[in-house]
Design a protein that fits this description.
Helices cover about 15% and strands about 40% of the residues. With about 375 residues, the chain is mainly beta.
Length: about 375
């Protein structure tokens, strides 16, 4: 295993956990001006794949970040949020969280470590996890440094990387990936700043994976070692200015320097499968999902009973549709306003007269369909989330 490294002269600057008094003196850089509240000294991400105990592959994502706080407005960066995939069976695993605040006191570097008990994890819904912690002993002039690792079974969703921030300049941002050639991704680049490092190469690795095989009356798990060539790539940008705020620009994310990935194909050792997405394919997948379109196709006694209960006997279809709409909007409490999928089940929503925005909206679609009205769910997104 090897990495195609960045500039040799920058290696010492990006060594995690090793600071000297000289690190508190900012280097001369055209991207640091008097208006900067903080500056990211380095931000480095690394992704490689391992074998999964529950299926094919998992990826391991590691991030290391060092930030200098220049004034009190920059203290917001001392609260770190980490978003992850949730789910009862395939939730991401957060590990190796280390965070230290460094202050210069009487010419000496004094570090204050984060207490692991101060890391809080919540679950906005059953599909998402969110970890959060605040750096200790941080003040104007501090250097904060943190690292964490996420192990994920969502092997097809390679994490994107943002080199540029909207309000904070960055002196060095780097992303490295090591992907088995059994997985093919399209790299989607965005932004205008040139890469200081843009190198690719190949390697080789072995992965311990588990698969189910037929044996007698029931399938059994079998562990095997898969050897595969890998694709390696290293991207880095240095001296990246803050993007700033532009009048009449609704979505800065559409323009900032970043790289994202889309799965285009897989190879299982025998055949290649294409995974290129189209809007038609995305629609078909959504309409089959158990938490979106699937339940709309099912015969559900509770939904049928609700429809009979709330639909007036007389009147045309439009009058009935209006009556059902107003009944559901007035008798069901929305518990979550930003999740468009079914959180639990229609049965649970009807029983408790409450649910997420997705629960209630899709329940209305199901009721309208029971009346014989052509009703279809539509997913929308606001501009702030980008393309």
């Amino acid at each position: 295993m090897y990495w195609l490294g960045g500039f040799a002269q920058d290696k010492a600057k990006h060594t995690f956990g090793k600071l000297t008094p000289a690190d508190f003196t900012l280097p001369a850089s055209k991207v640091i001006d008097s208006n900067a509240d903080a500056v990211i000294l380095f931000d480095i991400g690394d992704v490689h794949y391992i074998g999964s105990k529950t299926g094919w592959f998992s990826y391991v994502y590691k991030r290391q970040t060092r930030i200098r706080i220049l004034d009190n407005k920059g203290l917001d960066l001392a609260t770190i949020g980490i978003g992850m995939h949730g789910g009862s069976e395939h939730a991401d695993v957060l590990s190796k969280v280390e965070a230290t605040t460094y202050n210069l006191e009487n010419g000496q570097v004094v570090g204050t470590k984060l207490d692991p008990r101060d890391i809080y994890t919540d679950k906005p819904d059953k599909y998402r996890l969110h970890a959060k912690f605040s750096m200790p002993a941080v003040r104007q002039g501090s250097i904060i440094e943190y690292t964490y690792t996420i192990t994920s079974e969502w092997w097809d969703r390679l994490p994107p990387w943002r080199f540029q921030r909207q309000h904070v300049p960055c002196l060095w941002s780097e992303y490295r990936v090591d992907i088995p050639q059994t997985l093919s991704f399209v790299f989607i680049r965005q932004g205008i700043h040139p890469y200081a490092v843009d190198k690719g190469g190949t390697g080789h690795d072995s992965y311990m994976v588990r698969e189910q095989v037929e044996s007698g009356l029931a399938p059994v798990d079998r562990e095997l070692t898969v050897s595969a060539n890998t694709i390696k790539h290293d991207w880095a940008i240095k001296d990246i200015p803050a993007f700033g705020s532009e009048a009449y620009l609704t979505t800065p994310d559409n323009y900032m320097d970043q790289i994202s990935f889309q799965l285009s194909g897989t190879y299982n050792g025998e055949e290649t499968s294409a995974h290129t997405n189209t809007w038609d394919k995305a629609t078909d997948e959504l309409l089959e999902k158990s938490n979106f379109g699937g339940p709309l196709k099912e015969d559900n006694d509770q939904v049928s009973g609700l429809t009979e209960k709330i639909t007036p006997a007389g009147g045309d279809l439009l009058a009935k549709a209006k009556a059902d709409y107003y009944y559901i909007s007035h008798h069901y409490t929305c518990t979550d306003g930003d999740w468009p999928y079914i959180e639990t089940s229609f049965q649970d929503v009807i029983k408790h007269n409450s649910g997420s925005v997705g629960d209630i909206n899709l329940l209305l679609v199901a009721v309208l369909r029971r009346l014989g009205i052509a009703a279809d769910p539509v997913l929308l997104s606001t501009r702030e989330f980008g393309y």
